[in-house]
## 1
Amino acid sequence: MALTQKIIAKGEKLFKKYLKCFWNQAKNLKNLRDYSTCPPTDLEKIALADEYIAEANRFINLGKPANAVDYYQKVLAIYPNHARTFFFLGMALVECNKIDAAKDAFCNSARFFERKETELIWGTVPLINNKYLSNAMSDIGWKSNTLVTHYYSVYKREDFDIYFEELIPTWLTNEILKTRLSPYFSMLYILEHASIVFIPFLGGAFGSTPLWDFESQLLQQAGIKTVLASYGGDTWLYSQILNPCLRHVLISDYPQAGRSEETIAAKVRYWQENADIVVFGVVDGISRWDVLPVNYVCIDESQWQPKKYYSQNDGINGVVRVIHTPNHRAVKGTEFLLHAVEQLKAEGLQIDLILLEGVPNERVRELMQEADILAEQFILRYGLSGIEGMASGLPVMSPLDFEVYTRLLRRYSYLDECPIVSTTPENLLINLRTLIKHPELRQELGIAGRQYVEKYHSRKAAQYIFGSVCEKLLYGKDINLMNLFHPLLSSYNKSSPYIHHPLLENNLPKKYLEY
C-alpha cells in the first residue's frame, strides 16, 4: 500500500513538473466555465476568447491594466500560441510597471507571428529622405512603407504612408492612453509586417518607451533585421565632436542635446552593438559603419528639374540671385553670409539674397529655378538642401574643408567627384564674389552638380545602396558593403562617367579667385 502511494505521489509530482502549463490552462478553463463534464467546442473556445479579449481591452481603456492582465492570461489558457494576445499582455504588464514580465510576453508574441510578405519599414522620425528612399525601393519591386510619429509643417501629410495614430485600435478611446500606447501598436504593426526596419539611433517604435533598450532583441526574436542610419542629432555626442566650431554652433542651436549626452550616448552604444547594418552618417563618437557613402540622402530627382537657362549676370551687368535656406541660423552660418553680402553690395555688386525659412518644399523647388547660387551652409558639410540645389542645376557652397572628415570620403568614397565649392566663413567672401563674377563657372558647376545627384543621390543610387543592404541581409548575398563606393573597387562608380568639374578637392582654382 505504501509503495502504491509513493508511485501515485511521484506521478503527481512529474505531472505538475512537466505538464504545468496544461494544468494551469485546465484550471483557468474550469474557473471560467464549468467544462468538467463536457469540454468546450472549438466555436465555444473562439467565443470565450473573444469575450475575454473584449473585457481585457475594456480594462485597458479604463486604466486598469492589472485586470486586463488577468483576462489576457485567460485567453492564453485557451490559445497558448496567440501572438497578438501575448503582445497585448506585454503592453498591459508595462502599464503595471512589470517590465521583465512584459519583455517575456513580447518575446513570446514575436515567436508566434507569421509574416507572409517582405516589407521594408522606414521611420519613425518623419524625415523626408525616408519617403524618397522608400519610394525608390518600391519602384524596383520591394514592398516598402514609411511609419512616422507626425509630419513637419514644410511637408504634407500624404508625404508619409502610415502614422502611429492610425494604428491605434478603435476600442481605445482614452486620449491619454492613446498617446502613451501608440508606440506599442506601431511595434505590433512592425512585428506583423516588417522584414527590415530602417531607423536612426534614437530607435524605432520603442525608442521613446521604457523598453528602448529591448527593441533590438525583440526584433531579432521576430527575425526582423535592423539598419541604422544617423541624421546627426540622434548621434552627436558634443564632447566627442572633433571640430570645435561645429560643436559651438550645435550648442547654440540645440543646447538640450549637450545636457542629454548620456542619454544619447546610451542609445548610440546600444545600437552600435546590436544593429545588423550601420550606414555611415557622422564620424564623431561612432565605433562602426558598414556602408560608406559620402551622404546616404537621396531624393526623387524627377521632382527637381535642372535649370534650362543660366543667367549671364555678373553683379555688374545685372542682379545675381543667391538663395539660402536656414532652418537654424547658427548651424548654417547665416550671419557670415549676411555680412558677406553686405560687403559685396558695398563694393557695388548687385545681389538679391533670398532667405527661405519655414517655406513649403514646393515653393523652395520653384525658387531654386529662379536663383543663380545656393549658399547652403558654412559649418556643416552638405545635406538635403545642397542636394536639392545641385539637382536644380545650381552651384552650391558648403564646407568640405575639415580634413579629419573629408580625407576618409575622398580615399574610400566618391567625394572627389562632388562639385560643391568648399566654403567656410573665412573664404565665403572670396568664393561668393568669384561665383557672382563668373557666370560661366556657375553654369559649369551647376551642370556637374546635376550629374552628381543623378549618379550618387538619385533613386538609382538609393536602390543600389539599400538594395545591396537588403539582398545581403535577407538573401545572404556576398556583397562587400564597405567598398560599395570605393573609387578603385566599386563597379557602381565606374558604371557611369566620372563627374568632371574645375574644383581641386572642392576648392576653386586660383585662376578664378577674385580677391
Note: The chain is about 50% helix and 10% strand.
## 2
Amino acid sequence: MWITVAFICVALLALVLKYVFTSPGLNPFEVDSRQPLKPMVLNRKEKNKVLKQGFLASRVPEDLDAIVVGSGIGGLALAALLAKVGKKVLVLEQHDRAGGCCHTFTEQGFEFDVGIHYIGEMQSHKPYRCILDQITEGQLQWEPLENPFDHVVMGPPENRRCYPIYSGRTRFPEELKKCFPGEEKAIDQYMRLVKTTARSVWHMVLLKIFPAPLAKLLVYSGLLKSLSPFYKMAPHSLTEIASELTENKDLRAVFSYCFGTYGNMPKDSSFSMHSLLVNHYLNGAWYPKGGASEIAYHIIPVIEKAGGAVLVRAPVNRILFNDSKEACGVSVMKNQEEIHIRAPMVISNAGIFNTYQKLLPKELQATPAIQTQLSMMKHGDGGLSIFVGLNGTKEELGLKANNYWIFRENNLDELVENYAKAGREEASRKLPILFVASPSAKDPTWEERSPGKSTLSLVSFASYKWFEEWKDDKVTNRASEYKELKEAFIESALEVVLDVFPKVTRDKIEYIDAGTPITNTHYIAAPKGEIYGADHGLERFRPELGAILRPQTPLKNLYLTGQDVFVCGFAGALTGALTCASTILKRNLHLDAVALAKRTNYVDPKLKKE
C-alpha cells in the first residue's frame, strides 16, 4: 500500500514540476521593456485621443490574433501581454472610454475615479509592479499614500473611536498593540495566520494553469486541502477566526474592517480572501500619479505597437461560433447593424455571467459544463458610489492621502445584515459602512490640473433590487422617485462625512451626485450593479470551484480573464490576466514575472520597506 502511495506522490510531483517550471511558450517578460519617463500628459483632450477611440469597422485591424471583450485591467493587461509577444489584439469596450473600473469621468470641472482608490505591492522590486512596468513600458508612475494609510472609525459621534492602520510588516502589528494593550497575543496570532495563508495563494494559481485532470486529482484526492494553508483556511469565516482570537469587539472589527474591499460581511467572508487583502497592503499603499485614467492611457500604446487597437462604443452583443462550436469572433452592434469581426481566439473580460448568459448562443449556454460553472457562482453585492466636488485645497479642507472606513458600530455582521434586509427608504437612512477617500489629495498632479479644488469619493453597498424598477429609464433622466431615493442615500452619507471631517462644510460643496447599482449596470455592464464581479463569499474559495473555473472555458478558443477568473480588485483582475495569458501562451508567466522582478531589483528610496 505504502509503495503505491509513494508511487502516486512521485508521479504527481513529476507532473507538478513539469507544469510549474517547464515553459516552452513565448515569454512577454523575456526582456525589460521599460523606457525613460516621458513628460506626463495632463491635457484631457490629448489623453482622450487614446482613451476614446470610437469603433468603426474601418478601424478594426486585419488578421487579428485575438479579440478581447471589455477594457478593464483584466482585458487591457491580457491584451498587452499578448502584444508583447507579437500578437495583434483588438479590445472592444461598450462604454465611451477605455479602462473599465479604472476609468475616470469629469463633471463641472472635477475629475473622479470610479474604482481605483489604492493599490498595494507597488514597490519597484515586486512582481505586480514589474508586470505593470512592462505593460506600460515604465510610464505609469505610483505615489505612496500617507502612513497611516487607513483609519477605522467606529461608533456614534458621542462615542467615536478611531484606530489608525499603518503599513510596515512590523509597524502594522506594533501600532495595533498600542491601540489594544493586553491583546498582543491575539494580534501576533492574527498576523501569523494572515501571512501563512496569503503566502500559499499560489496553490490557487496552480489550479488554474494545471491541466484540468491534474487539478481535479489534487482537489478530489484531498492532497490540496491537506497541503495548502490557503485552502485549509478557506472554509473558515472572518468572524469565526476573529472571535477565536479575541473577546474585544473593537479589535474583532479592526481585524475585519477591509471586508468592504470584496463585498461580503465578515461571517460570509473567507479568511483566505481576507488574508490576501491584509497582506497586499502590509508594505504600503499607492495611487497612480495623474489619476486612474493613466493606467489605460499607458497600456493602450503597447497594444497598438503590435498592430492591435482598443475601440470604445463597441457593444459586443454575441460571440460567434463555427460549425464545430469553436469561438471564431464577435458581433458588434453599430447603429442597429451587426458587424462581424473574426479572430481565432476570443477572450472575455465581461465577467462570467455576461459571458455565459448574454454572449453565448442559447444552445451553448445550456451545455452541462457551462451550467455547472454558473451553478457554483452567484452575483456579488451592488455598489453605491458618491462623488463630491469641493471648493478648497486639501490643506484648507483637512484632507490627506489616506482612507477612512467608517462604521456605525463594531457589530459589523449585524449592521450589514439588518441593512440588507431593510426596505430601501429605511436603508437609505442607516448606511452601516462608508469608505471615504480623497483622490485629489492622493495625486501630486492634482493642484496643477485643478488648482483650489478637491474631491471626495464615498463608497458603500446597496441592493440592486432597491433600484431595479428604474433600470430601463434614460440614465441621465430617471424618474423623480429614483432621484429622491438617491438623494436620501447621499444625505445619509454626507452627514457622516461632515461630522468626521470638520473642515468639510456644506458651503464648500460645488458638486455632488451618486452612482447606484443600476448606474454600474449602464456604465460598466455589471449585471446586478456589482463592483467586485461574482460573489466572494465562502463558496467562492472551494477548491472544487478553483479547479473548474479556469481561463479556458468548456468551449474551444473562448477564454476568460479578469477578476472572475481569480479574485476581485485591481490586483486580482491583473492576476486573472496573467493566469489567462499563461494558459494561452502555454507558459507559467507568474514565474517569469517574478524572475524579471528579481533581475531588475532596483529600489527607489521612497519605496523601501519600513
Note: The CA atoms of residues 107 and 278 lie 34 Å apart.
